[in-house]
Amino acid sequence: QVQLVESGGGLVQPGGSLRLSCAASGSIFAFNAVVWHRQAPGKQRELVAVMLSGGQTKYADSVLGRFTISRDNAKNTVYLQMNSLRPEDTAVYYCKGEPPAGDDYWGQGTQVTVSS
To answer: Going by C-beta distance under 8 Å and a sequence separation of 6 or more, which residues neighbour residue 56?
Structure first.
């Protein structure tokens, strides 16, 4: 069973940057897609960015042009580079692996706080 572990969260000032990592214990190609979600206090979880197994990417409108999802195949890791961070980006960020069949795999989440 593949496990996903997020890291890289923290406190950053508005306008700053962070890079989140989602490391898989096995092959990242076990998933059809790896998805970054986030959940802010009192709000529903929302999709942030998607990396398909073929390398295609998709983004939520709210992060388009500021966030970049990428993958290091050798490290079985998917990254989320977050630039020009805003207070409204504050949330717990989760990565999710979507296998070809069966249940999705979720990481434990990493807190991102954007505040001066």
So the answer is: none
What are the Cα distances from residue 15, in Å, to 42, 46, 68, 114, 115? 24, 21, 15, 9, 10
Return the amino acid letter for 81.
Answer: Q
φ/ψ (deg, to 5) at 30: -70, -15
Q: How far apart are alpha carbons 76 and 29 in whole angstroms?
A: 8
103 three-class SS: coil
29 DSSP assignment: G
To the nearest 10°, the Cα dihedral for 116, 5, 69, 58? -110
- pLDDT, tens digit, for every residue of 54-101? 999 999 999 999 999 999 999 999 999 999 999 999 999 999 999 999
